[in-house]
Design goal:
Layout: E1 5-9, H1 19-33, E2 37-42, E3 60-63, H2 71-74, H3 79-92, H4 106-123, E4 127-132, H5 136-147, E5 152-157, H6 169-173, H7 175-185, E6 191-194, H8 197-204, E7 211-213, E8 233-238, H9 248-261, E9 269-274, H10 280-288, E10 295-298, H11 303-311, E11 315-319, H12 332-339, E12 344-347, H13 351-359, E13 363-365, H14 368-380, H15 397-409
Helix pairs in contact: 1-15, 4-5, 9-14
Length: about 400
């Protein structure tokens, strides 16, 4: 049996459609294409959004049964009562925890442990790869490593843990105390992975571990055959946003100036949100800046459809973290945007991301005049970005994987 056998431990994996699923799925497929035996331990979640676009039959996936405490709430028919019960339970058992204790997935962890141990012995698995968040995969991997010392453990941080920028004010006060628990959890990991150099720098201050960066990465080749024709002037935003951390007001004010300057073209200008909840906050902003006639919302769709929409855009809109004290918050979305080879407008401040965006014909700014100028430039003289392939890009998933594989095989 080849020693190139790896087991992914994650609560999020296809057919569930989510950003976390996409990251792990894409890298699992790259392992498989490069002659690895790939195993996955994961779970299904009640009422999860699923997609049939994923190829799963070439991966050995085990969906472990578990008792999700939220299942009973999902059966409550009155919407208001269901919402009240959800919020009440979330106080004691967070829906997706980034903090310990992580009670929601307890039964999944317990049920997975013997299955993983059996797999390791039966299939001679040499590497386990756990993905945070929530903490459960790391907690499970810690136990598996203790029971199988010869197994190499790779612990991935898709997000920061104790030092996450999304922590509540209360949790921020206890982050250093909580980190003592986090440190104990990953103490026996052989390799740590982060999604950015900013996050790596934060972890290096606190952990004496080998840490490498694995970007979410670009898949340029998957966009090459998609139609790139643009009708009108379309600004596209895909996915969710974070009200507390993204400066939506800055963009909407700039967009208002832009539309006022181009009133004769108002029928051509569109601001499209794809898979973005039309929240009360977002609706208030649209009304405040009187831009209703330019804005449209599209429901969440399969990733291939998102790519088509991105390719047919004039500008791809992105919101970076507005807090200058937080480093390295690079989402998977930005690498999709770069893959689409369309100009990117990012609102916010993130030095690492800014360097990447500038290399690919985009702009990161918090200056309204600068944002308006960029939009006018793309309206009147659209950028035509050169074709890039997975082979010749350092930030492609393919080349990110090659670096990762080299690190793993030399552990």
């Amino acid at each position: 049996m080849s020693n190139k056998s790896i087991l992914f431990i994650t609560v999020t994996f296809p057919p569930r459609l989510s950003v976390a699923s996409l990251r792990l799925y894409n890298y699992a497929q790259l392992f498989k294409k490069n002659n690895w035996n790939v195993y996955v331990i994961t779970c299904n979640q009640k009422n999860q959004t699923e997609s049939k676009e994923f190829k799963l039959d070439n991966l050995k996936i085990t969906y472990v049964e578990w008792d999700d405490p939220y299942n009973k709430i999902s059966k409550i028919k009155p919407k208001i009562l269901r919402k009240i019960c959800f919020k009440a339970l979330n106080i004691f058992i967070p829906y997706l925890s980034t903090w310990l204790p992580d009670n929601r997935f307890n039964s999944w962890k317990q049920n997975s442990e013997p299955i993983i141990n059996d797999l390791i012995k039966k299939e001679s698995i040499k590497y386990i790869y756990s993905s945070f968040s929530p903490p459960t995969p790391h907690l499970l991997a810690k136990k598996i490593k203790a029971q199988n010392p010869s197994v190499k453990w790779i612990a991935e941080y898709r997000d920061m843990w104790s030092f996450s920028p999304t922590l509540s004010i209360l949790k921020k006060q206890f982050k250093h105390l909580h980190f003592k628990l986090e440190k104990k959890v990953v103490n026996n990991a052989d390799l740590l992975i982060t999604v950015s150099f900013g996050h790596k720098e934060i972890l290096k201050k606190h952990l004496s571990k080998k840490i490498i960066v694995l970007y979410n990465g670009c898949d340029f080749d998957s966009y090459h055959k998609l139609d790139a024709n643009v009708t009108g002037f379309k600004i596209v935003y895909t996915g969710n946003y974070y009200r507390k951390n993204n400066d939506l007001k800055c963009f909407f004010e700039a967009f208002k100036f832009f539309t006022d300057q181009n009133k004769s073209l108002k029928k051509q200008i569109r601001l499209t949100f794809v898979g973005t909840p039309k929240s009360a906050y977002l609706s208030r902003l649209i009304k405040k800046y009187s831009i209703d006639e330019f804005v449209e919302f599209k429901a969440k769709v399969e990733n291939v459809e998102v790519k088509k929409i991105q390719r047919s855009s004039s500008v791809l809109l992105h919101f970076a973290w507005k807090d200058k004290n937080h480093m390295g918050n690079l989402t998977g979305k930005i690498f999709e945007y770069i893959s689409a080879r369309k100009p990117i407008l990012s609102i916010g401040h993130e030095p690492e991301l800014n360097q990447i965006i500038l290399k690919h014909g985009g702009l990161m700014s918090e200056n309204i005049s600068q944002i308006v100028s960029f939009l006018n430039q793309q309206l009147n003289n659209p950028s035509c970005l050169s074709k890039i392939t997975n082979e010749n890009s350092e930030i492609s998933k393919l080349n990110q994987f090659k670096n990762l594989e080299s690190e793993i095989l030399n552990m």
